């Protein structure tokens, strides 16, 4: 599916989906990827010897918190709790914009922690992977935020 097809499909489906359509519609399908990559950040940071607790503590807080909130939001969408109300569309846009800011700050701090552990061998490799996944999760949340804001603008 090309980017043009995704944009056309998105333009015709402006309401929040419910049921299994949640996992098949754009940008809600990104929530599954956000969970996967956010979970990988969480696992990789937890697997390292956290030598910089101030930096990596924030990374863990962000990855665990946003993993939990995204999972809860995905379950609520699947259950159809939102009933297509405009307030849920606004909440989705705000949530993903805040998530982008949090994940961007966490990714930068994780990159800093990675640079500081360059001579620790395996821990350095785990930190590199966590940094890459943190920036990828940030990108996913950013794409979702942009399309959520566009949906909110169109709904109002």
Automatic annotation (TrEMBL):
PROSITE patterns: MARVEL
Keywords of the record: Membrane, Transmembrane, Transmembrane helix
GO molecular function, one term: structural constituent of myelin sheath
GO-annotated cellular components: membrane
Segments forming domain MARVEL: 22-153
Gene Ontology biological-process entries: myelination
Protein name stated in the entry: MARVEL domain-containing protein
Sequence intervals crossing the membrane: 30-52, 58-81, 93-111, 123-150
Pfam entry (one): MARVEL
Primary localization class, coarse: membrane
Signal peptide limits: none
Membrane topology, record value: Multi-pass membrane protein
Cellular compartment(s): Membrane
